[in-house]
Amino acid sequence: MTSQADVIVIGSGGLGAATAFHLVKRGVKRVALVDKHDIGSQTSPRAAGMVSCVRKSELMINLIKLAAEKIKRFTEDTGQPLDWIHSGSLKVARRAQDADVIDSDIARGRGLGLDVERISPQEAQRLNPFLEPEGIVAVMRVGDDMYFDPSQVAIGFARAAEIGGATLLPHTAVTRVRIDEGEVTGVDTDRGTIRAPIVVDAAGAWTRQVAEASGVRVPLVPTAQQLFVTEPVEGARADLPMVRIMDAAVYMRPCDGGLLWGVYEEHPRFFDMNGLGDGFQIKDMPLDASVLWQYAEDVKPQLPILLKAKVREHRGGIPTMTADGQHIVGPTPAVRGFFFASGCNVAGLSISPALGEALAAWIIDGAPPIDLTPLTVARFGPGSWSEEQLKQQAAWQYRHFYGAV
Ligand SMILES: Cc1cc2nc3c(=O)[nH]c(=O)nc-3n(C[C@H](O)[C@H](O)[C@H](O)COP(=O)(O)OP(=O)(O)OC[C@H]3O[C@@H](n4cnc5c(N)ncnc54)[C@H](O)[C@@H]3O)c2cc1C
Predict the structure, then answer these.
(1) 384: pLDDT confidence band, cut at 50, 70 and 90?
(2) C-alpha to C-alpha distance for 352 and 257, rounded to whole angstroms
(3) Are strands 138-142 and 198-201 parallel, antiparallel or unpaired?
């Protein structure tokens, strides 16, 4: 096994694999991409694959716009396949206060060059006939939104990184990041030690476990998220705009002739990864269909199809939530050479092309191409959060993903 690298990336999901690919692309010779399971096999391939361009801050809108462009150019850039559809989306408010959010989304989005407008519920139904106008107060059409096949991103980046010279090390568990006098010196794995001055913790649901094994704290909570994919449904064209119902936090998009849909439920399930044991894989996460059916009832007047369509697949994963709903990316001030690419907040796969590129530049140039300090772990301050507080705020961020108030 490799015993020396310039950069070790722990975790070959979307965030880690994108970082490894961009490091290689920028000319870093010895990149080791280490994963305790198969490459790109954990939460990333189980995502919905939706790109949402209207975000709460200018920084996030700029990053996701860049990511969307990179998704469209994925095959050109990496030589690997990626199926994507530029469908646009409809964000639906059923309450007056959420219509106000839509108005401010439109003002912010337009200011940053997004193709956004308010349309009538009837126009929305014309664009996506599965959406019934009943009970709808306002709809925002987002022309920039798109979706892609989630199973192709992490594996595509990882393969391209390997072709460019990176060493892929599947079935290699990092047990500890080695830190000597405040500097990273490498990692210990169950197959031996690899030395390197820079380590990226992109271990997804296990990010915190990896960091804490080395005495580094990071405030994020592994959180269940699940979805259904239905059997083919007549009229479910691939280019129908995706639908998001704000207060219910339900999403739906076309998928293989049927529909894919999920929810950010009010009481999310959190996990302590240490308690799940070494052999645990994301596919072992227990699923709970009753959560999805409960919310299908909630949105029945707008999306009656959800209760009618036959379910073909039920899948889920464990993204990581933070207290402020922002990603955790960049160096930690506690240890030189220790970087994070995590805190995905259920939106890490779509943004991974942009974050991977920015993080690679940060590692190589000593600074990111755009100011990403609002995303660093330093924003939380040492010991400024209790576990209870973190979970409460993370649950709020999860439930209010679509900005409902
Ligand atoms: C149902 C669902 C719907 C979603 N919908 C969307 C969406 O529409 N759009 C979007 O952008 N995102 C979505 N997401 C979120 C998205 O899946 C995540 O943000 C993204 O996949 C996170 O990638 P990751 O690299 O952090 O994690 P992962 O893909 O889980 O990768 C982490 C890797 O680290 C490895 N690892 C862990 N510990 C160690 C160790 N000690 N040593 C070595 N390797 C280790 C793991 O084996 C794993 O392969 C959704 C998620 C789910 C579950």
Answers:
(1) low
(2) 27
(3) unpaired
Q: How far apart are CA 67 and CA 44, in angstroms?
A: 16
Q: Provide Rg for the chain, Cα atoms.
A: 21
Dump pLDDT digits (tens) for 277-293.
999 999 999 999 999 99
Q: What are φ and ψ of residue 172, in 5° steps?
A: -135, 110
Residue with the smallest CA separation from ligand 1 atom 12 is 347
pLDDT in tens, 229-263: 999 999 999 999 999 999 999 999 999 999 999 99
**Which amino acid, 121?**
P
- Bridge partners, 228 (sequence order): 261, 314
What are the tokens at 236?
Answer: 């479910």
pTM of the shown model:
0.98
Q: Which residues lie below 8 Å from residue 83, measured CB to CB, with a gap of 6+? A: 148, 149, 152
Q: Which atom number of ligand 1 is nearest to the Cα of residue 34?
A: 43
Indicate whether 276 pLDDT > 70. yes
C-alpha torsion sign, points 70, 72, 78, 81: positive
Q: How far is the CA of 15 from the centre of ligand 1 (A)?
A: 8
Instruction: Tell me the CA–centroid distance for residue 106 and ligand 1, in Å.
Output: 30
Does 44 have pLDDT greater than 70?
Answer: yes
Of 345, 342, 326, 314, residue with least CA distance to 223: 345
> Which of 10, 33, 35, 43 has most ligand 1 atoms within 8 Å of CB, for mutation?
43
Structure tokens at 292: 């999805």
Q: How far apart are CA 205 and CA 202, in angstroms?
A: 9
Written as one string, the DSSP assignment of 225-265 is EEEEEESP-TT--TTSPEEEETTTTEEEEEETTEEEEEE--
